[in-house]
Amino acid sequence: MVTLSDTTRALLTASLCLVISGCSLSMDYSPYNKSADGECSGLAEIWYDGIDQDCDGNDGDQDGDGFVPDAYVAAFPDWQTRLSAHATLREGDCWDDADDGSFLEEAVLDGLTLTPDLVSPDAEDVWYDGVDQDCDGANDFDQDGDGFDSANDEQADGSVGDDCVDGSANDEVFEDTCSGELITVDAADAASVNPGATETYYDGIDQDCDGADDNDADGDGYAVCDECDDTDPETFPSDIPEIWYDCQDQNCDGNDGDMDGDGYVDAAYTTSCTDWASINPGQTRRRLLGRHHGHRPRLHQRSTATPTLEPSRRPPWRRRHPLRRRRRCLRRRHLRVRRRPRRLRHRRLCKPRQRARRGLPRRHRGGQPRRR
């Protein structure tokens, strides 16, 4: 049996066509749907070369997310009219080739499982995974955009930044050393807290992220609620000798004008030191009583102790309520002589009944016998 080659068969078919029906000769017998310009060969696509090998009209969007890489746009300025499917595509894709592993070099956590179709300008960025999902070029570890990486989210190489508040769920929670209150900074205000910010003392927030106590402006190791002057680093609770009458409490014992400890300050001291009463803020307040009728001015200290009641030393028969005594006396007024003055008569009439004792004659119940 004789087998004809494809070329011989084609020539015979063409000759037969000419002889029988007069049809025109055509050599386009390719099974790959070759286009008129000869560029479509029906082979596997070679991406980003400007040629559509598989004839699908797409050469720049490998992951199918609707975006082409910026490098492709730069290589082929006419990319949008070069092939039919490019007309609906947009530029700006930062990761389009799944074989390009360099894009995930800084990925951590869930970023390691991403694929190119999940990365495009239309995607929503997930912070602190090391991947720029929305292709905006921003630092994935600087959510608040203040130029400092988060100090509480670890990067791929194990390092962290120095921004204590970045809008992350792991941001630092501050504690006020005086009140004990826990303070959290809102994500909208996170950009105001970074190593380059200016510190605002006594608000409980460490704006410059230096780790120092926000209630210790002078840096002497004592909070404003534990010392008398937080503007002077040389003044704090200690055993150093006091410099008297200089309007500064060097050892924070609450006394600068009463050297002898008798509870008095000199009037000249109150004149030279007008704020002598506020030398020790937050402690017991003192006030000066003026000089009246030759008395020395006294330095009064407001006491916070709870007063204690001492038991009465009066005899039992004199501990009765005064109204009860008076009523009892008035009920017996008709039994007594009424020729004395009212004031003296009331006093005299009440005493015998109050001081009466059992077992004594009536004339001795008042102490001395009544004179006739």
Write a structural description.
With 372 residues, the chain is low in regular secondary structure. It has a domain at 239-301. It is 15% helix and 5% strand. The strands form three sheets. Strands 1-2 form a two-stranded parallel ribbon. Strands 3-4 form a two-stranded antiparallel sheet. Helix 5 (322-331) packs across helix 6 (342-354). The longest helix is centred in the N-terminal third of the chain and has 15 residues, at 6-20. The protein is rod-shaped. Mean pLDDT is 75; it is low at 10-33 and 280-310.
End-to-end Cα distance, whole Å, is 179 Å
Structural class by secondary-structure content: little secondary structure
Total number of beta strands: 6
Radius of gyration: 51 Å
* Mean pLDDT over the residues: 75
Strand content: under 5%
Shape: rod-shaped
Largest sheet: 2 strands, parallel
| Order of secondary-structure elements | HEHHEEEHEEHH
Oligomer: single chain
Please tally the helical runs, counting DSSP H or I stretches of 4 or more residues.
Answer: 6
The share of residues in helices is: 10-25%
List the helices and strands and how they pair.
Elements: H1 6-20, E1 67-69, H2 70-75, H3 79-82, E2 90-93, E3 174-175, E4 182-183, H4 267-272, E5 286-288, E6 299-301, H5 322-331, H6 342-354
Parallel strand pairs: 1-2
Antiparallel strand pairs: 3-4, 5-6
